[in-house]
Design a protein that fits this description.
heterodimer; A: alpha+beta; Heat Shock Protein 90; 5-stranded mixed beta sheet; two-stranded antiparallel ribbon; 12 helices; 7 strands; B: alpha/beta; Arc Repressor Mutant, subunit A; 2 domains; 5-stranded parallel beta sheet; 9 helices; 5 strands
């Protein structure tokens, strides 16, 4: 954001600096005009091309309109320069006294209209699949329109309004163009800043602002005197602002493309990972269900055999039945876990309060913790922004991490029995949660593999819990990792992107 | 169970461990359970004919690795593998390393009990064989160098006269040695003697390759 203000402030400072000299005439500076015109034309054509390219990627009709505006403006430049009195006299060109001003008026009023079109059309994405055709049509349409307008001006010289008193001085009627232009610029800036859907909106409003400064210098402070210091200064400032905007646009476009290709690569990788993870997961689930099943069958067989003995051992039968019940509960837990993972609506997202999730998970796990004499401490940051996510899955992640922590503390008998759960912000403003236990800690070399399927450090553990946690957190655009706790134990961290406020959600649509 | 025996179970899943303990002891087996291979190795185990029931998937090292470790450390227990996800290469490699059975979870109880029974019988036979071999070695140790020289010649079917010529002894001396050999090895017939000689030769060969 700051960059916009710097450019805007620079423009204002330049305006103030130029103000005292604005009306002073310069010598025969017409010679510089072709250079200025060429620079402006190239700049605008490049901007238009860039916007067309952006449209190809993002398919937002607004971009197409803005690109058309730049193209239109660029097409007017050569006509304006060619018709400028005293510049191309050597070529024997004379378009009459009013042509230049008429072209300038057309360009000055036309461009903000396109920008307004852009500001209002924004958000509607083009339906057609053939963006190339749309671009082609737009270019054709704008060129034809420009040609028609120029043709009209050239053929109706005598009926053009008398903008110019002589070669260098304007008539009052030009002020009509200036006021209308001013009004259009300000309106455009207002609409863009109010709707502000993307960084591009702000840069375009900056372009309009530079045009305001330019027009102020040319028409008012410079007294409308052509080739005065104010007149030239206005144009040069406008040119500078336009180049800065083009540079920013270039920068952001390459950024968009870089992000795009990175996303595609990441997508491919993720798909590959998902495939292998799915294979591992299905094997893992099969095992996880098979294990209590095998145990149940063996227990039942054993019970039958204890009953069939000549002196039935009912105590052993009872033990076996108890184990069957426990195994049944265990397999039910597995099934419940799978259901949370694949449940219909696993993709459903809503605003979720991380602190509320933590409290809820702690309530559930709290009973076991109290039973085991483990204290759970909460250090929850105030005023955390919401996250966009699936509450059921994230709840399961927290439950898994808390259960793991409790298990780790349980297996480390004689130590301080404390589980600390903390929420807060990460280095980049993302939300960060950590579950720190005073348990046995992580064996060296295990930290990397902990989240892989089948990797477990618990007796009878399948290594599914942390893998589930990782897939959920990564599906939410976050990261999960483990570190060592001081003086002992382990810390499991995860970070999740904070929900972006709705106003800025149109990131992908500049 | 006419003679005492034991079953060792190694599985990192406590509930499987408990169920196997119950099933095997319902059939009168003496069962010892271990949650890991290391626990098994560290424990003092009864010196009885025994069988080892082993889960393929163990924490730390796999059951297959543990089986190889047992072979390396000279523990010759018959192994019955149980697994949730056995594939052919895995079972082949287990059988090659000396497993007697490879059972898929959930297995039929009779299959497991049969496999364990076979394992124990096999271990019993191996132990008996080892005991006999030890006795035989003791008897052999009591023989004089001359007698040890004559034994393979007798076993190869040479007559006393031929042996006497070979070793440049008198036939009577050979006869006396031969009687001594028969007596020291407690061989009742020539056939017994030949068998003992063969086993001793094989044992020597094994000692040689091991060294």
């Amino acid at each position: 954001m700051r960059r916009h203000y710097i450019v805007a402030a620079g423009l204002v400072a330049a305006l103030l600096l130029t103000m005292p000299f604005a009306r002073e005439a310069t010598g025969r500076t017409e010679a510089l005009l072709p250079a200025y015109a060429a620079a402006t034309g190239v700049l605008e054509i490049m901007t238009a091309a860039l916007l067309f390219a952006l449209y190809n990627v993002q398919r937002s009709r607004a971009l197409l309109i803005l690109a058309a505006g730049y193209l239109f403006s660029a097409l007017m430049v050569p006509v304006w320069a060619l018709s400028f009195p005293g510049v191309f006299t050597a070529l024997g060109i004379d378009f009459g006294a009013q042509t230049t001003a008429a072209v300038a008026a057309l360009r000055r009023l036309g461009f903000p209209l396109f920008v307004l079109g852009y500001a209002f059309a924004s958000g509607t994405s083009a339906a057609g699949r053939f963006t190339g055709v749309a671009v082609f049509k737009t270019v054709l349409l704008v060129s034809a329109g420009a040609a028609l307008a120029v043709g009209f001006i050239l053929t109706h010289q005598d009926r053009l309004p008398a903008f110019m008193r002589d070669e260098r001085h304007i008539n009052d009627i030009w002020l009509l163009v200036s006021y209308t232009g001013m009004a259009l610029y300000v309106a455009g800036i207002a609409v863009l800043l109010v709707r502000r859907r993307s960084p591009l909106d702000i840069w375009v409003s900056l372009v309009l602002f530079s045009l305001v400064i330019e027009l102020m210098l040319i028409s008012f402070l410079g007294g409308g005197i052509r080739l005065s210091i104010g007149w030239w200064a206005g144009r040069l400032y406008g040119l500078t602002a336009a180049s800065i905007v083009l540079a920013v646009l270039l920068f952001e476009t390459t950024g968009v493309y870089a992000r795009l290709s990175a996303t595609i690569a990441a997508e491919r990788r993720a798909r590959q990972n998902r495939l292998t993870a799915m294979e591992a997961l299905s094997a893992s689930i099969a095992h996880e269900i098979n294990q209590p099943l095998a145990s149940m069958i063996t227990n039942a067989d054993a019970a039958l055999r204890w009953l069939a003995r000549s002196e039935p051992r009912l105590d052993r039968v009872e033990d076996a039945l108890h184990r069957i019940v426990a195994d049944g509960h265990r397999s039910n837990k597995v099934v419940a876990g799978i259901r949370t993972m694949f449940m219909k609506g696993a993709q459903e997202r809503a605003e979720v309060d991380l602190n509320a999730l933590v409290r809820e998970a702690v309530t559930i796990a709290g009973t076991e913790a109290r039973f085991e004499g483990i204290a759970i401490e909460l250090e929850l940051a105030d005023a955390l922004p919401p996250i966009i996510g699936n509450a059921v899955q994230l709840h399961q992640v927290l439950c898994n991490l808390i259960e793991n922590g409790i298990d780790a503390i349980k297996s480390a008998h004689d130590r301080q029995r404390l589980l600390v759960i903390r929420t807060g912000f990460g280095a980049y403003g993302e939300l960060h949660a950590r579950v720190a236990d005073s348990g046995t800690g992580i064996a060296p070399g295990m930290a990397e593999r902990l989240f892989d399927p089948f990797v477990s450090t618990k007796p009878g553990g399948m290594g599914m819990g942390l893998m589930f946690c990782r897939s959920v957190i990564e599906a939410h655009g976050g990261r999960i990792w483990a570190t060592a706790n001081q003086p002992r134990g382990a810390v499991f961290h995860f970070s999740l992107p904070a929900a972006i406020l709705p106003r800025d959600t149109a990131e992908q649509e500049p | 169970m006419n003679e005492p025996s034991a079953v060792f179970v190694v599985d990192d899943d406590p509930s499987i461990l408990a169920s196997l303990e119950s099933l095997l002891s319902s059939e009168g087996h003496k069962v010892l359970t271990f949650e890991s291979g290391t626990a098994f190795l560290a424990a003092r185990r009864p010196d009885l004919p025994a069988c080892l029931v082993l889960d393929v998937r163990l924490r730390g090292s796999s059951g297959l690795e543990f089986q190889r470790e047992l072979v390396r450390s000279g523990i010759h227990l018959p192994v019955v593998f149980i697994t949730g996800h056995g594939d052919v290469p895995m079972s082949v490699s287990a059988m090659k390393a000396g497993a007697i059975e490879f059972l898929l979870k959930p297995y039929r109880d009779q299959d497991l009990l049969d496999a364990v029974h076979n394992g124990i019988e096999r271990d019993r036979a191996r132990r008996a064989e080892a005991r006999q071999m030890a006795e035989l070695r003791e008897r052999y140790a009591a023989m004089t160098p001359r007698e040890r020289e004559i034994l393979p010649l007798v076993a190869s079917g040479l007559m006393n006269k031929q042996i006497a010529v070979n070793l440049q002894l008198s036939e009577v001396t050979v006869k006396v040695h031969r009687a001594q050999i028969m007596q020291k090895l407690q061989a009742r017939s020539l056939v017994d003697l030949v068998r003992f000689a063969d086993r001793l030769a094989a044992d020597h060969a094994r000692d040689h390759t091991r060294a």
